[in-house]
Every structure is written in C-alpha cells, then in structure tokens.
Amino acid sequence: MSGSEKHLRIASPLGFCNGVRRALDTVEALLQKGASPLFVLHEIVHNNFVVDSLKARGVRFADTLEEVPEGAELILSAHGTTEAIFRQAAARCHVTDATCPLVSKVQQAAVEAAGNGERVIFFGHLGHPETEGVLGHVPPGSMEVVESPEELEKLPPDDGRQVCILSQTTLDADEVALMTEVLRKRFRKVRTGAGICYATGVRQEAVRKLAPEVQYMLILGSPRSSNSNRLREAAASCGIPARLIDSPAEIPEEELEDVTELGLSAGASVPDELIKATVSKLRDLGFR
Ligand code: SF4
Fold it and tell me: Cβ < 6 Å from ligand 1: which residues?
C-alpha cells in the first residue's frame, strides 16, 4: 500500500430509486400478509443480493408463466411485461403489478404514438424485459428498436411520417442525446417522448461530476442491471478505470493499492445494506 492518505468519494445520489423501493414494498406487503407460495415473474429488480435475500424468505422466481401454478400469488417485476403476458397471468393467477410507473409511462407513450400512425423509434436493448415489455404493448412491426449508435445507419429512410423517439428508462443520457441528434438531421419530423427516468439521469450526472476528481471508480450493481452498467460506462467515458462489482467481495484490492482518490456509486437496484458493507470494507482497506 502507498504511504499517501487514501480518500473515498461517494457519488450522490446513489442506490435505490423510487420504482425499485415500490416494487420491493409490494413483495414485502404480500409476504407480511402471509402469501405463500409467492411467485415473481422474472427478477423483481436486477440485483443478485435482493433476489437471493427474497429467495431465502421463500419467494420463488419464474422465468416463464408456465412455471407458475394456477391460482398462485404472482408479482410482475418492476421492468414491466407485455400486454399478452399480463392478460394471461391475470387469467390464471392473483396478479399484483409492480411495474414502475415510469416504465408504464413509456409503454403508454409507445401505444399512443403507434396508434396515431407515427413512426416509433425506440432506443433500448432487445432481450431486456423493459424493452420486450414495451414492444409487447404495440402491434407487431410498429416499433423499430435501435440498440446502439451504429445501428442508426440501418434504419430505413424517412417516409414522411412523424418520428417519435422513445427509450428504455435506464440508458446513457449522453448517448441518447447524441442518437437523437443524428435522427433529427436524418428525418424531417422528429419529436421525443418518454425515456430515461429522473433516477437514472441524476445518478449518471453524479458519476460524471465525481469522475474528474478521482483516479478510479467502483460501481456497485449486478451484471444484468442496465442502469448499473451505464454508470460504469459513464465513469469510463470520463477517462478513468471503472469497475462494476456485485458485492464487497468483488472489490479489486490489488488494483486499488496505488489509488488515493477512489469514487463509489451504486445502481438503482442496490440496497443500502450492500452499499454500507462496501463502504465498510473500503474503510478497512484504508480509504477515509
Ligand atoms: S430506474 Fe427509473 S424506471 Fe427503473 S425502476 Fe427506477 S425509477 Fe423506475
């Protein structure tokens, strides 16, 4: 370890957003009511610690509706789902919908724009439950999903329709702004609708603000968490090494040996308990 004093700088805000809190409160309320067995379709939020803690309390996570017995208590995750799955679930289970209201807002915006005959271009990741859920709310073929700036070139030319740009709530704000600009140049009639949520935006801003003041940034979050990955990318885009860690056990101690100014942030699905445990381990490693 170097002889210099080591400092830990914590980004603010970090950790749980309101949508995640709301989804976990929903699970808690049903557990308190004695709902058993209690099923959740997909991970309630993308955090291994949260999911493992709930599994230890008897909550069962299903990848598909077929895995859920008829008549079971079923919670739909914070990321939302397709309309068809929602209907099927409601027909055979006692459903509680824990979709974040900000995700529902994006779904609604897609439905309205597609219904108005607009050309809906959606920035998001295929395979992510949120993007799949939005896709499942509009008629097949009425929404074009763009996963990266490179894919913008593949979009068919302007057909004269009003273009409506929407996005997954957890994308990188700078990248979305850049991609929107490209489309504004390419299409005549462009408007933007619902997308990146406030919680995502402010956590990214906090990381970008802190990055120039530190030599290395740790981001707490699980590998499947979109917003946590975007926080790591936001830090890396400022030119510093940044690593995503799922728990304090993953702190890369060797890489931090010569670091004197360390930054820390956490994705919107990371509980306070895990943030505190990580800070405590970093204190043990000499960061003040
Ligand atoms: S990150 Fe945003 S959209 Fe996702 S659950 Fe949190 S508040 Fe809702």
Answer: 17-20, 78, 100, 102-103, 169-170, 197, 199-200, 227, 268
Residues with Cβ within 8 Å of 106's Cβ and at least 6 positions away in sequence, in order, are 130, 134, 166, 167, 168, 169, 193, 194, 195
Q: How far apart are CA 279 and CA 262, in angstroms?
A: 11
Catalytic residues: 130
Query: Please, what are the domains in the chain?
Result: 7-15+201-284 (3.40.1010.20), 18-99 (3.40.50.11270), 102-192 (3.40.1010.20)
Expressed in angstroms and rounded, the spacing between residue 13 Cα and the centre of ligand 1 is 14
Phi (first) and psi of residue 15, to 5 degrees: 80, -160
Interval 209-219: pLDDT, tens: 999 999 999 99
Q: Is the pTM of this model over 0.70?
A: yes
Please report the atom of ligand 1 found closest to the CA of residue 18. 7
Give the contacts of 184 (CB within 8 A, at least 6 positions apart).
190
pLDDT tens sequence across 86-109: 999 999 999 999 999 999 999 999
